[in-house]
């Protein structure tokens, strides 16, 4: 039986809220990508690191946090 490879992903979504460069949809894109990786490519949800700048996010997408991920 073939051993299943451990797949990992880091997904970063920055909408830059309350700035002149505010974007709309980047966080939704990250969440959709996470769902696609889990549902279509058999990624383990525990092996996907999501960094978004939404209010209440546990881990903000700073340079330092991206490097730690």
Automatic annotation (TrEMBL):
Q: Name one GO molecular function term.
A: cysteine-type endopeptidase activity
Q: Name one Pfam family in it.
A: Peptidase_C14
InterPro entries for this protein = Metacaspase, Pept_C14_caspase
This protein's GO cellular component annotations are: cytoplasm
BP-aspect Gene Ontology terms: proteolysis
Domain spans labelled Peptidase C14 caspase: 6-68
* Similarity comment: family membership: Belongs to the peptidase C14B family.
Name of the protein in question? Metacaspase-9
């Amino acid at each position: 039986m073939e051993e299943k490879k451990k797949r990992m992903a880091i997904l970063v979504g920055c909408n830059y809220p309350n700035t002149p460069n505010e974007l709309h949809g980047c966080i939704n894109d990250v969440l959709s990508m996470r769902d696609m990786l889990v549902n279509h490519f058999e990624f383990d949800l525990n092996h996907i690191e999501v960094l978004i700048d939404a209010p209440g996010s546990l881990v903000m997408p700073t340079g330092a946090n991206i490097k730690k991920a």
